[in-house]
From TrEMBL:
Gene Ontology terms for molecular function: catalytic activity
Organism of derivation: Spiribacter curvatus
The protein, known as: Amidase domain-containing protein
Region named Disordered: 135-155
PROSITE patterns the record matches: AMIDASES
Length: 446
């Protein structure tokens, strides 16, 4: 069987189990795809070619001996460059951390290895995960595989780009304000941010310890669920239970952020598909979003600065100026402002929970725009001009503030159109329900 890395984990796992494919051949195919296309995209910061092939050989030997480690056995997976991988540098694509060699694997990397996954390399990312564009990186900017003149989004830019380009079946990212979901939406793949602390962040370079999440990026919801089942602390099964035949879907409107007409049209078509399948679709205004954005910044900034303060003093010039500016700004957020932001966060969580109480799940466009052009700093929307960074994060940070699970799935895209994503959310702890419902709804719009 001549499989390709852009097939689903489900199909690749079946081929590996049935002996139609072996892990070494699949890993070689991924390496060939990276070698052929990554000059254009710059998705990878480092590729572990020799290690990956050796790991694939061991995976094949274990399978030949009768040992089956599960659906990831022999499947290549990429890591964002802020995940510890023993013996390799964890830089967050920041020159100031070039000497930061990991002594051990991050907990999620250990889980991947135990499940038989092949760690193929580390993906490029926005420096320190401190931005939503993917333009700032010591390894160079990441390009969108759908159009190399466009941004990949960030900060898990390379992870999403690598999956979208068919270089690897799946990858891991981190998410502090949308960093798994933003690039997944712009690149046209699935990105899942679980409930807060549902997947361990131990051994993942922190940006904001009360907002950080780890999540998978894959081609389908089913593949994301498979990865989540391996990574979760509870060890839940990957099987998706059938979702109810009729869902009550609450569509969140952002009063201060109007959609690009093309995104709005496709979002409307997706909602029509939900209605056509018998689901109830209702709209509501998501209020206090501007205050939520301000509080998110007032939490993230000082937490990031506390983490990198000493390094900033020691290697000031090794940080990109945009990242350096944010780290300096965080030093000036006083304790009162930080605590007020955390207090608002608690109120905001209760407020959103009340708004969402009438619905099974919440739905919104992942982004108000398609991928902006490389170098584009501002975007025009019907509601006015906003910075590219704000357009990327404004509707996504709510899930991080609340700790709710959120998943972006691609909306239907015609030939010549750029990808756009649709986000679904549920309250904390309802990850498996969300994945099951997202699987059913994604089939309706693709």
């Amino acid at each position: 069987m001549r499989a390709t890395p852009d097939e689903t984990i489900t199909s690749l796992s079946r081929a590996l189990r049935e002996g139609q494919l072996d892990a070494v051949d699949l890993t070689k195919l991924c390496l060939e795809r990276i070698d052929a296309d990554d000059t254009r995209i710059n998705a990878f910061a480092v590729v572990f070619e020799a290690e990956a092939l050796a790991s694939a050989k061991r995976a094949d030997e274990k399978r030949a001996s009768g040992l089956d480690l599960g659906p990831l056995h022999g499947v290549p997976v990429a890591l964002k460059h802020n995940f510890d991988c023993a013996g390799h540098a964890t830089t967050g694509c920041c020159e100031a951390l070039r000497d930061n060699i990991a002594a051990s694997d991050a907990e999620v990397v250990t889980r991947l290895r135990e499940a038989g996954a092949i760690i193929i390399g580390k993906t490029n990312m926005h420096e320190l995960a401190y931005g939503g564009t993917g333009q700032v990186s010591s390894a160079g900017p990441i390009r969108n595989p759908r159009d190399s003149g466009r941004l990949a989004g960030g900060s898990s830019s390379g992870s999403a780009a690598a999956v979208a380009a068919g270089m690897v079946p799946a990858a891991l990212g981190s998410d502090t304000g949308g960093s798994v979901r933003i690039p997944s939406a712009t690149c046209g793949v699935v990105g899942f941010k679980p409930s807060f602390d549902h997947i361990s962040v131990r051994g993942v370079m922190p940006l904001s310890w009360t907002l950080d999440h780890v999540g998978p990026i894959a081609r389908t919801v089913e593949d994301a669920a498979t990865l989540s089942a391996v990574l979760t602390r509870s060890g839940d099964t990957a099987a998706l239970t059938p979702s109810p035949s009729e869902l009550r879907i609450g569509v969140a409107r952002f009063p201060d952020l109007a959609l690009d007409p093309d995104v709005g049209k496709r979002f409307g078509q997706a909602l029509a598909a939900f209605k056509g399948a018998g689901h109830v679709v209702d709209h509501f205004d998501l209020t206090y979003t501007r205050e939520g954005h301000q509080s998110w910044l007032a939490i993230m900034y000082p937490e990031a600065s506390a983490r990198y303060e000493r390094l900033l003093d020691e290697r000031y010039s090794d940080f990109d100026i945009t990242v350096r500016t944010q780290l300096e700004a965080g030093r000036h957020v006083n304790a009162t402002t930080y605590l007020q932001a955390q207090r608002f966060r608690a109120f905001y969580g209760r407020h959103i929970a009340e708004l969402a109480a009438s619905y099974d799940l919440i739905c919104m466009p992942t982004l108000p725009i398609v991928a902006p052009k490389v170098g584009q700093s501002r975007v025009e929307l019907p509601s006015g001009t906003v910075s590219t960074q704000d357009a990327m994060t404004f509707s996504n940070l709510t899930a991080n503030m609340l700790g709710w699970p959120a998943i972006t799935v691609p909306m239907a895209t015609r030939e010549g159109e750029l990808p756009a994503g649709l986000t679904l959310l549920r309250p904390v702890g309802q990850d498996e329900k969300l994945l099951a419902e997202a699987s059913a709804l994604a089939r309706l719009i693709n």
